[in-house]
Amino acid sequence: MSTQAEVLLTTSPVMPVLVIERVEDAVPIAEALKAGGLKVLEVTLRTDSALDVIREIAANVDDVLVGAGTVTRPEEFKLVEEAGGQFAISPGATDALFEAGLESNLPYLPAVSTVAEMMRGMEFGFNCFKFFPAEANGGAPTLKAFSGPFPNVRFCPTGGIGANNFTEYLKLPNVSVVGGSWVVPQNLIDAKDWAGITALAKEAVSKANAL
Questions:
Q1: pTM reported for the whole predicted model
Q2: What total of structural domains would you count in the chain?
Q3: Catalytic residue among 42, 56, 76, 81
Q4: Could you confirm whether 75 is annotated as catalytic?
Q5: What confidence tens digit (pLDDT) does each residue in 88-145 have?
Q6: How far, CA to CA in Å, does 77 sit from each of 2, 45, 156, 182?
Q7: Which residues span the domain enclosing 136?
Q8: How far is the C-alpha of 75 from the C-alpha of 99, rounded, in Å?
Q9: In this structure, is residue 30 part of a structural domain?
């Protein structure tokens, strides 16, 4: 399952974290991000519309990977898959979630914030993790310290990451993608400024490619 998850960490340098209230915004946002070069989209299960948003993007936007974030219960894997989601990400991890992730057809990225949690995930066979909340748990220096004893573990840090600091994470040997919502700010969504979202995505890709 971790091998499957590697595609989430290597396709685009930024994974937009999407909190979408209105289903009609789903396809325009996904198209705007794709036009900017970001093709792995995490739709958080924080809204009542989240599964419908995933369904709309999966059915109508080609050449992107759309999946669910904020997966907190084992039964949500099936709901995400039925909606057309292509991966699952949790904000933390329990043995029940590790087991559900192994049983699911979806690539699964469990979140950890400590070495002990990461090692528990490794016992289940995972070697790709979300690091969350990244800034609150020491940020890039912490992940740099992780890379010494665990050089084969890969991370997608998320939480407190924005345009001002995301490249500090991408410079690390164990990070090839970061998660964040700064490329999809709520004010641009409310204004339906899809071109503005594309511009932010392009800027992020350009900065990442310059590293």
A1: 0.96
A2: 1
A3: 42
A4: no
A5: 999 999 999 999 999 999 999 999 999 999 999 999 999 999 999 999 999 999 999 9
A6: 16, 11, 20, 26
A7: 2-206
A8: 11
A9: yes
